[in-house]
Write a structure and sequence with these properties.
With about 200 residues, the chain is an alpha+beta fold. It has helices spanning about 15-20, 45-55, 110-115, 155-160, 185-195, and strands spanning about 5-10, 25-30, 40-45, 60-65, 65-80, 85-90, 100-110, 120, 125-130, 140-145, 150-155, 165, 175-180.
């Protein structure tokens, strides 16, 4: 498990937070059920490395004063201009903690339909799920290699592959489909008809 070292933060003045950032550190908090919220600081470079390694929903070990706790990155604030991370919120978790998370949906492969002129359209780029912390996937992959034109994958179609998660969407919501692409000549004819009708 990736480890992130933290220091206790006792001064909450804006000037102190600015000094922390100038020193390459980020102010942060740790919260969770049945624990007091703790104010900490972490190194910016260490955070960025851990975020790359574990992903948006990964669990990491936070080491504070020699004591470790498992946490997840729940939120962070960026500077609107520089995109620099200004503040981070960590949620303390254990194997029994159920949480809500947004998980990216990735379409994998090139479909049979695309090879004959179709186009892959993705309607849901992330799914809202509820699961125990250890069961949250970093991403949801959908293999579209065998999809023909007209083939659609709905939320219900992937539930069996992610049975340890509750997917908080209607079963009939379409995640992606392989759609038919009109030839340019047909598109031109349709445009001409609209122009002729005065639309």
């Amino acid at each position: 498990m990736n480890t992130l070292v933290a220091q206790e933060r006792k001064n909450y003045k804006k000037s102190t937070s600015k000094k922390l950032r100038n020193d390459g550190k980020i102010p942060a908090i740790v919260y969770g059920n049945n624990i007091d919220t703790e104010s900490i600081s972490i190194k910016n470079a260490d955070l960025l490395k851990v975020m790359r390694d574990v992903g948006r929903n990964g669990i990491l070990s936070l080491n504070l004063d020699g004591k470790s706790k498992n946490v997840m990155l729940r939120d962070y604030q960026n500077d609107p201009v520089t995109r620099e991370i200004l503040h981070v919120d960590f949620l303390q978790v254990d194997k029994h903690t159920e949480i809500n998370a947004k998980v990216s949906v990735i379409l994998k492969g090139t479909s049979k339909g695309e090879k004959v002129g179709g186009i892959a359209k993705q309607y849901l780029h992330e799914l809202d799920i509820t699961a125990k912390a250890n069961d949250i996937p970093n991403e949801i992959e959908i293999d579209i290699t065998d999809f023909e034109i007209g083939h659609a994958v709905k939320v219900a179609d992937i539930k069996k592959d992610y049975s340890n998660c509750s997917i908080n969407h209607e079963d009939d919501e379409t995640i992606a489909m392989i759609d038919y692409v009109k030839p340019e000549t047909e598109e031109a004819e349709d445009t001409s008809k609209l122009e002729a009708s005065g639309v």
